[in-house]
Amino acid sequence: MSELETQVAVLQSHLDAMVENVQKNDALLKRFQSLETRLLGLSTLRELIEQVLGDIRSRFDLVWQSLVILDQDGDIHRCLAEEGLDFSAFPELLFLRD
């Protein structure tokens, strides 16, 4: 193989890797756009938490996620309880008072 052919093969390999990276980024962008559209359509905090903790892990192939809410007076927790959030279904939801 000549030096020119070697250079072409190396450049083709780099180009193939870049195209693959662009395709992965495009797929990720589409998932984020879909998530954004879905989040914008939610109307309650309970729905937001259920969506964030219930769907995002599978949608983005995450091993673990958590949501920490600073709730000094317990108002957010109380509001979610009134909205019927099943706290036991979301052990990764944490409330901090300080």
Beta-strand segment tally: 2
Task: List the secondary-structure elements in sequence, H or E.
Answer: HHEHE
Can you tell me the number of structural domains?
A: 2
Shape, principal axes of CA atoms: elongated
Largest sheet: 2 strands, parallel
Give the structural class: mainly alpha
Percentage of β-strand residues: 5-15%
Q: CA-to-CA gap between the ends?
A: 68 Å
Q: Helix proportion of residues, in percent?
A: 55-70%
Unreliable spans: none
Mean pLDDT comes to 92
Lateral strand order in the biggest sheet = 1-2
Rg computed from alpha carbons, rounded to a whole number of angstroms: 22 Å
Helix segment tally: 3
Describe the structure.
It is a single chain. The protein has 98 residues and is mainly alpha-helical. It has 2 domains: 41 residues; 56 residues, no CATH class. Helices cover 62% and strands 8% of the residues. The chain has 3 helices and 2 strands; from the N terminus they run H-H-E-H-E. A two-stranded parallel sheet has the order 1-2. The longest helix is centred in the first third of the chain and has 38 residues. It is elongated. 2% of the residues are buried.
Topology readout:
Blueprint: H1 3-40, H2 45-59, E1 67-70, H3 75-82, E2 93-96
Parallel strand pairs: 1-2
Short description:
The chain is mainly alpha-helical. It has helices spanning 3-40, 45-59, 75-82; strands at residues 67-70, 93-96.
